Amino acid sequence: MATINPTLTISGTAADFGAAVSVSITKAITIGNGKASVHKVVTVDDISEETNFTNPQIYDAGQMGRALIYVYNTNADAAGKEIFLTETADEAVDGDVFMHLEPGEFAIFPWASVMDIFATTGANTAGQSVGGLEYMIWEI
User: Whole-model pTM?
Assistant: First the structure.
């Protein structure tokens, strides 16, 4: 078995928040034997022809169980480099998007759903650009 120890630290002065803030949380998470672990950096491209999407599926609900997922938009700060996490491979429309990452943003979240996760940059060939996404998944 392996253990990962994610830590979240938030701090700021009274000038930042109206009162000084200092919070740090560390949670040890055990990855069981025989559980899946994935780390990839992928290209997200929603500019291709509608029948040739290259939006990657980052989580396959049929292959993995409960998981801890880390996602990071690796793009440099620039307009039009957003990445959307969706339940379908071909579009990012209001009903399908459950996460929107601006350049440089990241998230760590637990996932226990029967829904797949895809990454996209826009809706049906109206995508903003080709983007970069780093992700790690630990089945827990």
Answer: 0.78
